[in-house]
Here is the input.
Amino acid sequence: MPIDPSACVSSSAQVSGGAEIGPEVEIGPFCVVEEDVKIGPRTRLEPHVYVKRWTTLGADNQISAGTVLGTDPLDRGFGGERSYLVIGDRNRIREHYTISRGTQPESVTTIGDDNYIMTSGHIAHNCKVGSRAVICSCALIAGYVEIEDQAFISGGVVVHQFSKIGRLAMIGGNTRVNKDAPPYFLYSDFNITPRGVNTVGLRRAGFTEDEVSALQRAYRLLFRSDLPLEEALARIEAEIEGEHARHLVDFIRRSERGICRR
Here is the structure.
């Protein structure tokens, strides 16, 4: 597929003839777009963006200067095989950011829709980032990490490989995430520690007072009752109704690294 006639490509940009450039795309000065890249409608690349092979971007993304998408994995076992980076729609990825494609042949790093990813950080190979998340400046996301919708990761956070961060969880600045962080709660300290319910984030997301209160009860059972984990989960299932409590219990039961508890 040739470059769409409505796309605007700077004369100093290098765009492979094997790339697919959609309608009204803007590609700024000194950008490089390799073959086997697909860029969806109205996506904008600021100057000096490098989009490497086997990367797909959806519609209406804004990629700021100096960002490199689809980098080879930072994995000494990587052998150069074909793998992918797939980015959805309406994401903002700010300056000097890198996102790797998968390590294993045909594997994928995925970024959803409507995420705001700030400056000077990295998302590693085989990560799965949901939608409407915020990842602040200088956060480092290691390989195979999963970040659910609407999570908020503050500046300087480091996330250990294979860790999971739940929906609407908020991770405070400079925290080391080396255990799974269940959804809806606040976390901080150098070694990730639960610090309460993310009430501000929940209310901004449209949660009712009853829903927030229910999650506060669940938090107390998990982190303040000294109950064994399985007993705390059984109490939540028996005493707290609603989809959010069910999602919380399911997230914890699926945890492989274990959740962060005091």
About this structure: The domain at 203-253 is CATH 1.20.1180.10 (Udp N-acetylglucosamine O-acyltransferase; Domain 2). The first helix runs from residue 199 to 204. The longest strand covers residues 193-197.
